[in-house]
Amino acid sequence: MQLILQAHNAGEAVVVRCRGRVVSGDEARFLQSEVDKLTGQTKNVVLQMAEVSYVDSGGLGALVRLLGVLRGARGDLKLCQLPPFVMQVLRATNLLSVFHPYESEKDAIDAFSGRGQAAPETFEASNNRIVCLDSSLDLLAYLKVLLRRSGYEVFVTQYPSDAVAMLMGARSSLVICGPGMRTNEAAMAKIRQSTPDVRLVQLPADFSTSEADQAGPNLVNQVRSMLAPPR
Predict the structure, then answer these.
(1) Number of domains composing the chain
(2) Per-residue pLDDT tens for 94-141?
């Protein structure tokens, strides 16, 4: 494992200093399990990332899901002291305003004082509905935020049967199947048979471990090309 965490309480929050790689797999699961242990008393978490050396698409997905879990529990997640490459990842994936990173630990901690629950972002209704199917909750959380911020209405599920129901009920334009579905030939066949006109994107096996500032924007560009109205 190439992720080391050091935590301490600071007022209304717990600060977790991260050193190493925040990536898909053991590191992402370790981060989430440690945060779970630390948030018995407070759901306010600061991740200090000054010594983070790499973040892949799966690691970014883990951060997105952690943010959603904490906000769902009436807490929040603040990132601070981001290295330039992490800032670039957030800019490239249009997630900079989702996390609102801070320059220092103190600024991030102070941001919790007198703060109400973060208001959910609102998006205009879209005629382009996308269903995302994969076994990874981290990846689904990432795809949902990435695509919603690009103007699409997004439904996510881990279960092929639910994906079929969503495709039919929501009249979706596109289904994105993650790497966890690549070997599930029965699920792919069921989707094609039930909704033969739907467009299908199968993410590559290395999507979660790929460069986040490339994989995310490339997927958005692919989706835009597929859903663009005919000229």
Answers:
(1) 2
(2) 999 999 999 999 999 999 885 544 445 555 556 688 999 999 999 999
CATH number of the domain that residue 142 is part of: 3.40.50.2300
Residue that has been written with the tokens 């994105």 in this structure = 176
Comparing C-alpha atoms, which of 51, 46, 66, 53 is closest to residue 23?
Answer: 53
Please state whether 5 falls in left (phi above 0), alpha (psi between -120 and 50) or beta. Answer: beta
**Amino acid letter, residue 220:** V
Query: What pLDDT shows up at residue 116?
Result: 45
pLDDT tens-digit map of 145-154: 999 999 999 9
Q: How many CA atoms lie within 13 A of 49 on its CB side?
A: 28
Strands 3-10 and 44-55, by their bridges, are unpaired
